[in-house]
Design goal:
A: mainly alpha, MetI-like fold, two-stranded parallel ribbon, two-stranded antiparallel sheet, B: 300 residues, alpha/beta, 10-stranded mixed β-sheet, two-stranded parallel sheet, elongated
C-alpha cells in the first residue's frame, strides 16, 4: 500500500512538472522568437562596418585590405564628387580605384549609408535589392497592411458577429449543428487556396463588377481575408453568447421583450468581452496572414490612402509587410543588409501585433472593472 | 495497477512513435546500399525559368546513371544563389549572372571563386493582352514605361487605345529574387535607375502571363515558352527606326531579337566528380537536345 502511494505521488509530481513546463513553454517560445528576430536584425542598427561616405582616413585604413594610399584616394574621390553620388565598393571598382581581390576582401566591412530608423518608417521608397542605391522605406508597406486589414474588418465584423448571433439565438438546433460544421470547414481551407481563389476567380469578378483596371488589389485581399477571419469571429463569438446564462434570457422574455430586444439590450452587453475578443483575434489573423495577401493584393509598393474622398482607394494594388518578408527573405544572403532589414520589418510586425493584443487586454480589463 | 499498466503502455507507444522515423531511415539506407550501390544526391536549385529544363535534364540523367539522383528545386535565381553561398546546394541554375557582391560573399564562405557555366539561351517576351492593338515597341519605350522617372504612363502616349478603355498602363513585373527581373532591368532600364514604384510584382513566370490574359490594360514580361492564346508577344526593336523582331528561336539565335539572355549554372568552385560529369553531360549533344526540346536556344 505504502509502495503504491509512493509511486502515485511520484507520478503525480512528474505530471505536474510536465504541465508546468507546457505552461512556461509559451513564454519561452515568445521570448526566444523575439530574441532571434531581434538578433538577426540588429546588425543594421548597431553595426561596426565602416561608412566610406563619412569615415575618416584612419577609420578606413583599419579595414582589412585597405592601405593608407587607397584610403586617402577614397577620401579624395569622395570630396571630388561631393556626395552627388554615394560611394559604394561597386562604384570604386568601376572607377578602378579597387582591384577585384581588394574588393572581395573589403566588401563585407564597408557600407555606403547610415540606416535611419525614422526614414525607414516614414519614406515610401522600397528598393532593397538595388545595387547602386538601396532604399528601405516601409511606409507604403505599413499602409498596405493597414488598408487590407481595415477593409477586411469592415466586411468580416458585421458578417461574423451577425452569423454568431444567428447561430446562437435565432436558428433551430438542427440547422445550428450543420452551420457550425460548415463554418469550421471554412476555417480549414489553407491560405494558399484562398490566395489562388483571389488570383483567379475574385480577380475577374472584381474587374467585371467594379470596372477596376486590375483585379488583384486591396478589395480582393480584404474579401479573401474577411472570408478567412469570419470562421474565427463566428466560433469565438458564438461561444461568448452561449456563455451568457439562460436565466438572463428567461428574465428578459419574462419582461415581455421581443427576441431582437433581448439580443440587443441583454445578450450583447453581457457577452461584450467575448465578442471583442472574437473581433481582435480576427484582426490578429488578418494582420498576420501572408500567403493569401501575397497572391491577392497585387504586391505593388503603393500607398492606397490619400486626402481625397473616399480616402482609401480599394481598387489599387498594395504590398503588405508579411508578403514582403515572405517574398524576399529567400533571396537574401544571411547577414546582408537586405536580410537584416527584413528582420527589422519582422520586429515591426511583431510590435504591431503586440500593440493590438495589449490594447485588447486593456480594453477587456477596462470593461471588467466598470 | 491497471492505470499504471496503461501509462507505461502509453509511454512505450510514444517512445515507439518518436523512434520510428529513425528506424525507417536506417532501413531504407540499407536497402539502397544493397540495391543500387551508393546513391549520390546532387542538389540543384534556382531559377524558376529553368526549372522545367533542369527537371528534364535530371530525369534523362537518371536513366543514364540510375545511382545518381539530381534533386531539382525552383525558388528564383537569387534564392538559388543565396543557397549556394549558404552551402545548401551544389549547383545553382540562374537566369542572370552572379553579382559581384554575391561572388565576394561566396568566396568568403567557400574560399573559392564560383564557376560559371553557360547552359543555353532564352528569349524574354514582352506580353500584352491579345486584344491590345499594339504590335511593336522599342527598348527605349519599354524603359520609359518601367523606369522610375520614365514618362510613359498612358497607352495613348504609345498612340493606341487599349481594349476596355482604361488608358493607364498596368505594369506587371516579377519579384526581385527572379533572374528574369534582374535581366529585364539590366536590358531595358537605364543604368543606375530602378523600377517605378507601384509595379505589380508577381511570383512566377506563368502568373505574369495569366494576369495579362485577364487584364486588358496590362503589359509584362516573361519567358517566351509561357505564351497562351489570351496574350500577345510584342515585336521589339532596339531603337526607333530599327526593324522590330518577334521573339523566336531563329531571331534569338541570329541575335536579331534584343532581349535574349544566357542561362547559367554556377558551382562553388571548379566542379569535380559527379557534379562535373553532370554538367558536362548537360553541355553534351544529348543534354543540348533537351534544351531545344524545352523551348530554349542551345549554348553557343
Amino acid at each position: 500500500m505504502l509502495h503504491r502511494s509512493k509511486g502515485k505521488a511520484l507520478r503525480e509530481a512528474l505530471i505536474e512538472w510536465l504541465i508546468r513546463i507546457c505552461g512556461i513553454s509559451a513564454v519561452i517560445f515568445v521570448f526566444a522568437i523575439f530574441f532571434f528576430v531581434f538578433w538577426e536584425g540588429k546588425g543594421l542598427i548597431f553595426n561596426n562596418k565602416v561608412n566610406i561616405n563619412t569615415a575618416s582616413i584612419e577609420a578606413i585604413t583599419k579595414v582589412e585590405g585597405i592601405d593608407e594610399s587607397l584610403a586617402s584616394k577614397i577620401v579624395s574621390t569622395r570630396s571630388e564628387i561631393k556626395l552627388e553620388k554615394r560611394l559604394t565598393t561597386e562604384w570604386l571598382l568601376k572607377e578602378e580605384l579597387l582591384d577585384e581581390d581588394t574588393f572581395v576582401l573589403i566588401e563585407p566591412f564597408i557600407k555606403a549609408k547610415e540606416f535611419s530608423f525614422w526614414k525607414f518608417l516614414t519614406t515610401q521608397e522600397w528598393y532593397p535589392a538595388s545595387e547602386s542605391n538601396p532604399r528601405y522605406g516601409v511606409f507604403a508597406l505599413i499602409a498596405g497592411t493597414f488598408s487590407v486589414t481595415l477593409l477586411s474588418m469592415l466586411i468580416s465584423v458585421p458578417f461574423g458577429l451577425g452569423s454568431a448571433l444567428f447561430i446562437s439565438e435565432f436558428c433551430s438546433p438542427k440547422l445550428k449543428e450543420t452551420l457550425k460544421i460548415i463554418i469550421e470547414l471554412l476555417a480549414a481551407i489553407p491560405s494558399v487556396v484562398w490566395g489562388f481563389i483571389g488570383l483567379t476567380i475574385m480577380n475577374q469578378l472584381i474587374m467585371s463588377i467594379f470596372g477596376a483596371q486590375i483585379g488583384i488589389n486591396v478589395l480582393n485581399g480584404a474579401i479573401i481575408l474577411a472570408l478567412m477571419s469570419v470562421p474565427i469571429i463566428v466560433s469565438i463569438g458564438e461561444d461568448a453568447l452561449q456563455a451568457v446564462p439562460d436565466s438572463y434570457r428567461e428574465a428578459a422574455i419574462g419582461l415581455g421583450v421581443t427576441r431582437w430586444q433581448m439580443v440587443y439590450k441583454v445578450l450583447i452587453p453581457a457577452a461584450k468581452n467575448g465578442l471583442l475578443a472574437a473581433v481582435l483575434l480576427g484582426i490578429g489573423r488578418a494582420i498576420g496572414e501572408t500567403m493569401a495577401v501575397l497572391m491577392a493584393t497585387g504586391h505593388a509598393v503603393n500607398n492606397p490612402f490619400d486626402g481625397d474622398f473616399p480616402f482609401l482607394h480599394a481598387l489599387e494594388s498594395v504590398k503588405t509587410l508579411t508578403a514582403t518578408i515572405a517574398a524576399e527573405l529567400g533571396e537574401t544572403a544571411r547577414g546582408s543588409d537586405h536580410y537584416q532589414v527584413l528582420f527589422i520589418v519582422g520586429i515591426l510586425l511583431f510590435s504591431i501585433t503586440f500593440l493590438v493584443n495589449l490594447t485588447a487586454d486593456l480594453v477587456v480589463k477596462g470593461i471588467k472593472n466598470k | 495497477m491497471k492505470i499504471r499498466y496503461r501509462t507505461s503502455g502509453a509511454i512505450l507507444l510514444s517512445a515507439a512513435i518518436i523512434l520510428l522515423p529513425g528506424c525507417g531511415k536506417k532501413a531504407s539506407n540499407g536497402d539502397q546500399g544493397l540495391g543500387t550501390g551508393n546513391a549520390t544526391e546532387i542538389q540543384n536549385a534556382g531559377s524558376d525559368t529553368m526549372v522545367n529544363l533542369a527537371l528534364a535534364w535530371a530525369e534523362e540523367y537518371k536513366k543514364l546513371k540510375p545511382n545518381i539522383n539530381v534533386a531539382v528545386a525552383g525558388g528564383g535565381s537569387g534564392t538559388g544563389i543565396a543557397a549556394l553561398i549558404n552551402g545548401t546546394t551544389d549547383i545553382v541554375n540562374s537566369s542572370r549572372s552572379m553579382k559581384r557582391t554575391e561572388i565576394s560573399k561566396s568566396k568568403n564562405t567557400h574560399n573559392q571563386i564560383p564557376k560559371q557555366h553557360i547552359m543555353g539561351l532564352d528569349a524574354l517576351a514582352v506580353y500584352v493582352h491579345v486584344d491590345n492593338p499594339l504590335e511593336e515597341i522599342t527598348i527605349e519605350q519599354i524603359g520609359m514605361i518601367y523606369a522610375e522617372d520614365g514618362n510613359i504612363t498612358k497607352w495613348s502616349q504609345l498612340g493606341i487605345t487599349p481594349p476596355g478603355g482604361n488608358d493607364e498602363i498596368i505594369r506587371i513585373s516579377r519579384q526581385s529574387n527572379s533572374g528574369t527581373y534582374v535581366y529585364f532591368k539590366e536590358t531595358v532600364i537605364p543604368e543606375g535607375k530602378e523600377f517605378k514604384l507601384g509595379t505589380r510584382d508577381l511570383h512566377g513566370s506563368k502568373d505574369v502571363v495569366e494576369l495579362i490574359g485577364t487584364t486588358p490594360s496590362a503589359i509584362g514580361y516573361s519567358g517566351m515558352g509561357y505564351a497562351t492564346s489570351h496574350v500577345k508577344m510584342l515585336k521589339v526593336a532596339n531603337k526607333k527606326g530599327d526593324p522590330a523582331y518577334g521573339p523566336s528561336l531563329q531571331n534569338a539565335m541570329d541575335k536579331k531579337y534584343p532581349i535574349s539572355r544566357p542561362l547559367y549554372m554556377y558551382t562553388v568552385g571548379e566542379p569535380t566528380g559527379h557534379i562535373k560529369s553532370y554538367i558536362d553531360w548537360c553541355l553534351s549533344d544529348a543534354g543540348q537536345k533537351i534544351v531545344v526540346d524545352s523551348g530554349y536556344i542551345p549554348a553557343p
